[in-house]
Structure formats: structure tokens, C-alpha cells
């Protein structure tokens, strides 16, 4: 009996996703609104590590990163259509193979038992040495899983992916991330093409088409329809400073690049924007043709207070991408906070641009 009920619920969910997808087919990808996850690969900090760090956390920072995610393919199965991936460059290998906190805390769970962190390549971590628990040690493995899932669901609606290249100064343990270079960004593009496939990526060149600049194409609404973008992914670089400029260098209007950038509206490369605060300004940018990402919650605060006001503003803003850490309620603290559209869906017509 339980199996029959479960099967019925599963089929009902599939039918809902199918009907939702068909409903959006003739809209352009800037005329829909999707919900997705923030730091999609992140696992919870191990309890023993959390306990140790909390005793030294005078600024009460730890509760802000007390969240976790189910495996990415399961998120996509639920209907989420946005993901966020952080990537650290590790051209020699081994730079992040031993989180320094493990010198201070004895854990019950081994880190990287297969030694994947010792090999050269892009690594997926939230915060080095502290918040290191991850669904994927390497970007390669993540991309392979995305391709596998996409091939098995070839009619899926486009998935937006935020790609954050992480570097910066040394942390309190003395670990300084490898700094990005033009070559490392070229290699990152090649990694996306190699393991996911260029045919699965919506690129800036695709959108620019015959227009002089990418921005000109965007304000002329040259985005594809959902049905034309099925089975594909659109990547956006989460950086608006030196790394963004380095990625754009020698690539006018992002010619030849695999990833869009968070660039100032009106500049040649501008197409997708990040506005984490769901302000009324978003609606005007959406009407102009830009795709905007905003957030339903941040730092666990909305979830702890069961406060949906930010999510309501995000929906009303028309931002095409809304991220959350709580498409399912938290298992790390008591809260019923859960983000979705009506009927537990994660895609709908855009309230500002949807026809």
C-alpha cells in the first residue's frame, strides 16, 4: 500500500512538472521566473567542527552558514532551475587537500577518502579550512553529473548556474587561494566545454547573434524561447570586480566566452545582473530585457524567523532567478520555512514580463 501511495505521489509530481514546463514553452527565457539554490553543493559543517568553532565565534558568524543541500541531481528532480557553484583554482593540485581545522578537531568522517583534492583542477568548496564539506570535490565531477542528469532528462527547461571564481587574501590559517589569471579563465571555459558540452551551454555569442554588442541584443529581447533552450544551461560569473574584468579582457561583448558576466547595465557585455536585495529597481531592468538574479533569503535569517517578506518582494520584482537555501525546511534548526511557488513548483510565468 505504501509503495502504491509513494508511486502515486511521484507520478503526480512528474505530471505537475511536465504541465508546468509545457505552459512556459512559448515564453522567452527572460519571461519566466525560477527558484533555485544558493551554494548548491554545500553540505553541513560536521557537528564536532561546528561545536569547536562556535566556542571561538565571538561575532556569531557560524549560524549564518548553518545550512546544507541535498545532492544536485535531486534538486533538479524537484524542479529547481538555478544552481550556484563556487570554484577555487588549483593548478598544481593539493592546495586544499587538508582542511586546517582537522589539525584541531578530531572528526568521525574522513575528508576526501579517494584523494581527489590532491589532483590538479578546479575545486568546489564554500570556505577553505572551515566550511569544506561538499557534494563534489571537483568541478569536473559536478559537470559530469550535470551532463548525466541532462542527458537523462533531455527535455528539461534551461538551468541557470551562478559560477563564482573564489580567490582573495590568506585566511586565519594562512591558506591563500590561487589567484585567477586569463589562462585559468580560459581553462575554466574549456572545462565547461569538455565535461558538459558546448551544445548544452547557452553562450553570449548565441544571444548576441547579428547584433553589434551583447547588450544591444539583450535590450532588443533576443533571448531564446524556453522550448528552444531545453536541455541547456546558462552560466553567469558571480563577480563584478577584477576577476570579472579579467574574464572579459580581449573578449568584446564576451565573444567566444562560455559564461555571462555581472556587468553594469548599458555596457557592451551586460545581459545578466545580480541584485541580491529584491528592490523595486529590478522591475525596470527586467522590462528592459535584462535577466536578474535575486535572493529570497540570506544568512539563515529569514528561515530562523519564518519571514517570507523578502521572498514576496523577490517574486513581485520580476527577477527571473530567485535563490534560496530552503526549498526544503532546515534539518539543522527548528523552522517550517520553505520556499516555492504555488503547488510546490519552482517555475512560473514572470509577473513582470510573462505574456
From TrEMBL:
One of its GO terms (biological process) is lipid metabolic process. CDD domains: PI-PLCc_SaPLC1_like. Pfam families: PI-PLC-C1 (PF16670). SUPFAM superfamilies: PLC-like phosphodiesterases. InterPro entries: PI-PLC-C1, PLC-like_Pdiesterase_TIM-brl. One of its GO terms (molecular function) is phosphoric diester hydrolase activity. This is Phosphoinositide phospholipase C, Ca2+-dependent. It comes from Chryseobacterium taiwanense.
Amino acid at each position: 500500500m505504501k509503495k502504491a501511495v509513494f508511486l502515486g505521489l511521484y507520478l503526480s509530481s512528474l505530471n505537475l512538472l511536465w504541465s508546468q514546463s509545457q505552459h512556459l514553452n512559448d515564453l522567452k527565457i527572460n519571461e519566466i521566473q525560477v527558484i533555485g539554490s544558493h551554494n548548491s553543493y554545500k553540505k553541513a559543517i560536521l557537528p564536532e567542527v561546528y561545536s569547536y568553532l562556535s566556542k571561538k565565534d565571538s561575532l556569531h558568524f557560524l549560524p549564518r552558514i548553518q545550512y546544507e543541500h541535498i545532492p544536485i541531481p535531486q534538486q533538479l528532480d524537484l524542479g529547481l532551475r538555478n544552481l550556484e557553484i563556487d570554484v577555487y583554482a588549483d593548478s598544481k593540485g593539493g592546495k586544499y587537500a587538508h582542511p586546517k581545522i582537522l589539525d584541531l578537531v578530531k572528526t568521525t568522517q574522513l575528508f576526501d577518502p579517494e584523494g581527489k583534492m590532491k589532483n590538479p583542477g578546479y575545486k568546489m568548496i564554500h570556505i577553505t579550512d572551515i566550511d569544506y564539506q561538499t557534494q563534489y570535490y571537483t568541478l569536473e565531477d559536478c559537470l559530469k553529473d550535470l551532463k548525466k542528469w541532462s542527458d537523462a532528462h533531455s527535455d528539461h527547461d534551461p538551468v541557470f548556474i551562478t559560477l563564482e571564481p573564489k580567490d582573495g587574501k590568506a585566511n586565519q590559517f594562512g591558506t591563500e587561494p590561487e589567484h585567477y589569471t586569463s589562462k585559468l579563465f580560459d581553462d575554466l571555459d574549456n572545462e565547461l566545454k569538455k565535461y558538459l558540452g558546448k551544445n548544452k551551454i547557452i553562450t553570449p555569442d548565441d544571444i548576441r547573434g547579428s547584433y553589434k554588442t551583447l547588450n544591444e541584443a539583450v535590450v532588443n529581447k533576443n533571448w531564446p524561447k524556453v522550448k528552444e533552450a531545453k536541455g541547456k544551461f546558462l552560466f553567469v560569473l558571480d563577480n563584478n570586480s577584477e576577476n570579472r574584468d579579467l574574464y572579459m579582457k580581449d573578449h568584446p561583448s564576451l565573444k567566444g566566452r562560455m559564461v555571462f558576466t555581472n556587468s553594469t547595465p548599458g555596457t557592451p557585455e551586460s545581459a545578466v545582473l545580480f541584485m541580491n536585495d529584491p528592490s523595486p529597481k529590478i522591475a525596470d531592468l527586467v522590462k528592459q530585457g535584462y535577466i536578474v538574479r535575486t535572493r529570497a533569503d540570506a544568512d539563515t535569517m529569514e528561515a530562523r524567523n519564518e519571514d517570507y517578506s523578502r521572498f514576496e518582494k523577490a517574486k513581485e520584482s520580476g527577477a527571473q532567478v530567485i535563490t534560496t537555501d530552503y526549498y526544503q525546511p532546515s534539518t539543522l534548526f527548528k523552522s517550517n520555512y520553505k520556499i516555492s511557488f504555488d503547488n510546490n513548483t519552482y517555475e512560473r510565468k514572470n509577473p513582470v514580463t510573462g505574456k
